[in-house]
Amino acid sequence: MSDVLLELKHLNIVYGSEYKQVTAVNDASITIRRGEVVGLVGESGSGKSTLANGILGILPRTAKLSGSMRFNGIELIGLNETAMNQQVRWRQISIVFQKALAALSPVHRIEEHMIDILRAHDPGIPMAQMRERMKKLMTLVRLPPETVRSYPHQLSGGMLQRVMIALSLLFDPPFVILDEATTALDVLTQRQILSEIRRLQHEFNLTVLMISHDIAAVAENANRIVVMYASQIVEDGPVETVIHAPKHPYTQALLGALPRLDAPTGRVKSIPGSLPDLSLSINQCVFAPRCAYAMDICWQGVPAVQVVEPGHTSKCVRVNEI
Ligand SMILES: Nc1ncnc2c1ncn2[C@@H]1O[C@H](COP(=O)(O)OP(=O)(O)OP(=O)(O)O)[C@@H](O)[C@H]1O
Ligand SMILES: [Mg+2]
Quick one: which atom of ligand 1 is closest to the CA of 52? Predict the structure, then answer.
């Protein structure tokens, strides 16, 4: 068995409408190995959710994918809905979204949601086995087993996110995507949930793609960090290295924008300018208009991905000077 679980190569995702085409993911390549927790960060609108939803094939019909997306040896681009449902979603890859309450019908108890999903994917499953599974999952996410008797609105935000994580683990998938799954929670609950996920990763060799605005949470929980800016992956490397010695000006700026308690003025640096219009074609470094290091060469074409050291890349021509 190869240790690579998911390999995205030159992935493009374009939303099309009558009026314009928005390239939300542009030439993205990422390799995720079994058991890794990969953090995906970048400012709002950079294409993180599009990438995640693209992997699960849950994008609107207007979205077009090209390039390659191999999961466990299977090419996902072009795989039909039936195969996607029977082989991939829930069983192989599941996702936890930020808005748990919106994802669950308010008139059904948690157990009804779980039973529906279990039955849809495994029609012959006996009731006793389903009860056993639900009990085990509740224990796994540290909730009392009776929680499954509740309606969604009877649970707190933190409990609901735990329920969503339990749902995502119904079929023991090897790969889970968390899309801002803990962002809406208070810091303590967030830490608790993320430490549960880390425990699952250690115990079951779970592989996790963790999308978050919260770089501190990513730094604490991921092994690797992938930085996205305006549809492109600009840096990818081990968490420690990227946080302490970022090799892309955007990563540097993003880290500089974090509030620091020890900063003398208490002020946070912002990044001047705004994200480019993703409906226009980009033939230069995508960050050049906002970059303090930009030179003529940065405007003369999309920079190639530079290898800083094995396992660490940056899409910047000035990588050696940063
Ligand atoms: N259904 C859609 N149709 C057209 N464009 C879309 C659609 N969904 C997203 N986009 C565009 O794609 C780009 C990327 O959006 P996406 O939601 O993937 O960003 P994100 O990094 O997840 O942002 P956030 O951090 O705010 O969740 C944005 O420019 C957005 O406007
Ligand atoms: Mg998003």
Answer: 18
Q: Specify the residue with its C-alpha closest to ligand 1, atom 18.
A: 47
Q: How far is CA 36 from CA 4, 180, 199, in A?
A: 10, 18, 13
Predicted TM-score (pTM) of the model is 0.93
Ligand nearest to the CA of 20: 1
The most distant pair of C-alpha atoms in the chain lies apart, rounded to whole Å, by: 68
Q: What's the confidence (pLDDT) of residue 262?
A: 61
**pLDDT score at 18:** 82
Residue 264 has pLDDT above 60, yes or no: no
Q: 118-147 burial, b for 16+ CB within 10 Å, e for fewer?
A: beeeeeeeeeeebeebbeebbebbebeeeb
Query: pLDDT tens digit string along 4-49?
Result: 999 999 999 999 988 899 999 999 999 999 999 999 999 999 999 9
Q: Is 132 helix (H, G, I), strand (E, B) or coil?
A: helix
Topology of domain 4-92+173-259+270-321 in CATH is: Rossmann fold (3.40.50)
Domain residue ranges in the chain: 4-92+173-259+270-321
The predicted model gives 53-77 an average pLDDT of 96
**E-assigned strands of 186-269?**
207-211, 224-229, 232-238
Task: Tell me which H or E stretch contains 103.
Answer: helix 100-103
Rounded percentage of the chain residues whose pLDDT exceeds 70: 97
* Main-chain phi, psi angles of 29, to 5 degrees: -125, 125
> Ligand 1 center to residue 264 CA distance, Å?
36
